[in-house]
Write a structure and sequence with these properties.
The chain is 32% helix and 19% strand. The chain is α+β, with helices and mostly antiparallel strands and 81 residues long. The chain has a domain of 55 residues.
């Protein structure tokens, strides 16, 4: 397994993992349960999203595209409501 993304928050790590899985790549979060061990103090470097080495380049491309995408606040709203 190879480190493809280092997250600051658990939710962020899960978003990246889900994004990669939707593309058909297997991803794992390391350090998911370590965050609770440090309590209220923000700890960096604990949450790592890992992929198989063969999927690394594709995973990096997917993450980069996601990171560069512009957020449209109205995209999720249902016009009929």
């Amino acid at each position: 397994m190879k480190l493809v993304y280092e997250a600051n928050q658990l939710g962020e790590a899960h978003i990246i993992k889900h994004l990669l899985e939707r593309a058909g790549l297997q991803a794992t979060i390391l350090g998911e349960y370590l965050q609770g061990g440090v309590g209220e103090i923000a700890a960096s470097g604990l949450l790592k999203v890992m992929v198989n080495e063969a999927a690394y380049d594709e995973a990096k491309s997917i993450i980069q595209a996601w990171d560069e995408a512009e957020w449209d606040e109205d995209a999720w709203k249902n016009e009929s409501l």
